[in-house]
Amino acid sequence: MGENFQIQLIEEKNLKTTNTYILNRFVKPSQILDLVSQYGTPLYLIDENTLHLKANELLNAYEKYKGPKRIAYSVKANFTPSILRSFMKDGITFDLTSLGELYFLKKCNIEPENAIYTSITEEEEEYVQILRNGITRVVVSSFNGVTNLVKAAIKTNVKPQTLIRINPEVSVKAEIRASYKNGKFGVPFNGGTIDSAFKIVKYIVNNEFLNFDGFHFHLGSQITNFSCYSNTFSKLDGFISKIKKEIPSFNINTIDIGGGTPVFYNQDVPTPKQMAENYVNKLNHLADDHGSFELIIESGRFLVAESSILLSRIVNTKEYNGHKIVIVDAGYHVLLDSALMKQEYPQEVIDIDNSDINSVKSTLSSKNIHLAGRLCDTYDVFPQSRISNLNNVSIGNYISFYNVGAYSVVFNMPFHCQTKPPIVMKTTSGDLKLIRKGTTFENLFEEEGGYIL
Prior knowledge:
By secondary structure, the protein is α/β, with parallel strands linked by helices. The chain contains 15 helices and 19 strands.
């Protein structure tokens, strides 16, 4: 999408239909019927070019940082193998949080050395497995975790590069906050127990089985107020200065600033470049004062969200009291964030028989049109973005949901015996390629133990 396509739409006085965008970027109008005829709906469509554009956009946003830098993709956002292979071409690092994600990485022939492992459970056997499988950069976030890593290092004879996940306990204005007092993730800079960054740093530096590498933090998702980053860097600056008074040789190789780069759904969001400009001077100040370090910028949502759309067919409608209920054959089993977070995905009707969508006008205001899914659940409704275009919501037409590439596929679930939809990718060469087969009722029956008697 190069520049954020949806923001471009908002800036125009007359909001253009995004239908033209979909048909030109993903598929031609003549191909829509072929796709849904072959694969049915719901159907995910991924544009590979957008994946590469987003990776480059995020890296280029930090061009003013003086030291080395790299992008890390948070695999939890979408572990579709074809997406992992696409990002391989960009030479980015992969951020893993589970042995399952490591399995996917290896099956895609991605070098484990090009991964960062950030465990939540931090179990000894988990660390043994990742070290034996070639991962050498590990993030710890508890004292128990770092001692388990030592035990694993001894068992495997591997000396991992070790980062500490800090909880800077700064105020974060975001849809999902990951840094707050007594939070789940990371450890505070200082504290009255062994679970503090200060005590863990000293433990690692004095341990012969670990190499201290640096610090990692993640403040939240969909961040648009960047004072939390500036505040974190100021606290980190003071913390490092404190450590160097006790350990003059203390050195930092890496600072991983986590994710948080926002994606447009309903509200305007800044670009990654605008985001970075708010605090890149602070990063350079850290490097000037404490030595050059590699900057790692993580992202899951930003890298994959805009690459994907979901096609769903309108299967029923009903109208009363000036409102119209539109039932589609998708549900929150394929877009769970619509229920969990009330995610306002932009939507639009694709009228196959009428390529000029603007020629058909609904008699109802869009606020009186309600999109609902196929599940027997009150929460199975789809909030609308302010750029959603629901003209001509009639049975047989299709609804496209935008920016669904993050956390939709990974949340697919079999509620109501629903099966996983197929995924088609438009490759950089322009081919439309099936990259995930849809599952069948027979697949689901067998998976749920139907033949175990």
